Amino acid sequence: MDTPVKDPRLRAIETVRTLGPAGTNCEAAARHWIRAQSLNANISLHDTLESAMDLVLQEERSALLGCVVYPDLHNLVFPYLSRMQLADVFLYNTFNMILATRPRQTDYKLVATHPAPQALVKDDYQIVLANSNSEAARLCATGQVDACITTLPAAKAQGLDLVRDFGEVPMGFTIHVRQD
């Protein structure tokens, strides 16, 4: 069980910035972390963690929540060593990761996926990369791809049908704060 952190910089956080749109594993992890720390903080969702980082660098009371499998997470750490600090890391299960399609879609060649879970796509399908699992579901629902690797809640929100359930994935999440 997570225990509230004592670091005064973390206790002062008013905004947690993370990957959107609504329904991402990062958003769920942010809600979990805020609750576990007994904070009264808002969650702000962004197209990429890189765009969220730009704002965290400018705001004293905000933090960046990242996922340890986020592509190029190291680029959110090392270039900012003098201005940002990795302040907390915690484990939290993702939503069930699934392969989904539009209703009555039986044949699929193009599969949208965030780069992190792309290994779940069979080699005989062409991959279209999306900024998040929620975005992959939206691309499928709008017919831009035939199927997607996404989360169960994102698939339900887009009216997609389940093809294969890979289950929850125990995942690490990171909290980055300004170093003042």
Structural write-up:
This protein has 180 residues and is α/β, with parallel strands linked by helices. It has two domains: 8-94 and 169-178, Periplasmic binding protein-like II (D-Maltodextrin-Binding Protein, domain 2, 3-Layer(aba) Sandwich); 97-167, Periplasmic binding protein-like II (D-Maltodextrin-Binding Protein, domain 2, 3-Layer(aba) Sandwich). The chain is 22% helix and 33% strand. It is built from five helices and ten strands, in the order αβαβαβββββαβαββ. The protein has helices at 8-11, 25-36, 49-56, 133-141, 152-157; strands at residues 15-19, 42-46, 62-67, 84-93, 97-101, 110-113, 126-129, 147-151, 161-167, 170-178. The protein has a five-stranded mixed beta sheet with strand order 2-1-3-10-4, sandwiched between helices. The longest helix has 12 residues, at 25-36. It starts with 7 loop residues before the first helix and ends with a strand. The model has no long low-confidence stretch (mean pLDDT 93).
